[in-house]
């Protein structure tokens, strides 16, 4: 099994890269999807979040009220740290189970872990390659406003809350520049796949 970490800042094109790698046959393990799963109603993680941040972070149907939780922790380093201490260990266990399942199904699988918070949570893991999706901050801001409907202030806040590009690029084995056309991005992904498959 080849285990690759795919990371990048918000609106950097990670999803596009992951989709293309999946088309080539990679097994994609999506950290954000795992986060949502471990926070399902009735889960120990959700109970811990409610205990730490108040029962009002749950909806009437017992689901996590993500906007309310976000407003409670956003910009508060201590609160983010407490939340991460609850969520990250559960995500680590579940992602490890998925890596093992992919390897059991196909010992030569290429497994791509799509993980926005690589530097914050998983930088020391034994990745064979760290792939960073990269586009300049101004372009990512523009994508957040035009494609995701964020206000410029919200876009700036989201970008500012993440690790800066220099730190992310410093751990990259491969950088995929997503600032050009879709065809240019995909050709870089195809070249990466040829390297992996070869």
Topology overview:
Blueprint: E1 2-8, H1 14-24, E2 27-30, H2 31-38, H3 44-53, H4 66-73, H5 77-105, E3 110-114, H6 118-122, E4 129-134, H7 137-148, H8 152-160, H9 165-170, E5 174-177, H10 182-197
Parallel strand pairs: 1-3, 1-4, 2-3, 4-5
Helix pairs in contact: 1-10, 2-5, 3-5, 7-8
Structural summary, described in words:
It is built from ten helices and five strands. The protein is α/β, with parallel strands linked by helices and 198 residues long. The protein has helices at 14-24, 31-38, 44-53, 66-73, 77-105, 118-122, 137-148, 152-160, 165-170, 182-197; strands at 2-8, 27-30, 110-114, 129-134, 174-177. It has a domain at 2-26 and 109-197: P-loop containing nucleotide triphosphate hydrolases (Rossmann fold), CATH 3.40.50. The radius of gyration is 18 Å and the shape is globular.
């Amino acid at each position: 099994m080849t285990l690759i970490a795919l990371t990048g800042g918000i609106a950097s094109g990670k999803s596009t890269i992951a989709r293309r790698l999946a088309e080539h046959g990679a097994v994609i393990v999506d950290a954000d999807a795992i986060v949502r799963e471990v926070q399902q109603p009735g889960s120990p993680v959700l109970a811990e979040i409610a205990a730490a941040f108040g029962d009002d972070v749950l909806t009437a149907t017992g689901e996590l009220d993500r906007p309310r939780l976000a407003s409670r922790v956003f910009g508060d380093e201590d609160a983010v740290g407490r939340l991460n201490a609850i969520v990250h260990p559960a995500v680590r266990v579940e992602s490890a189970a998925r890596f093992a399942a992919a390897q059991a199904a196909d010992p030569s699988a290429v497994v791509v872990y799509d993980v926005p918070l690589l530097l914050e949570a998983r930088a020391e893991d034994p990745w064979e390659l760290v792939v960073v999706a990269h586009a300049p901050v101004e372009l990512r801001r523009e994508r957040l406003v035009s494609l995701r409907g964020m206000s410029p202030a919200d876009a700036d806040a989201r970008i500012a809350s993440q690790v800066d590009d220099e730190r992310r690029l410093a751990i990259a084995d491969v950088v995929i520049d997503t600032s050009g056309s879709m065809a240019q991005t995909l050709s870089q992904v195809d070249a990466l796949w040829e390297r992996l498959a070869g």
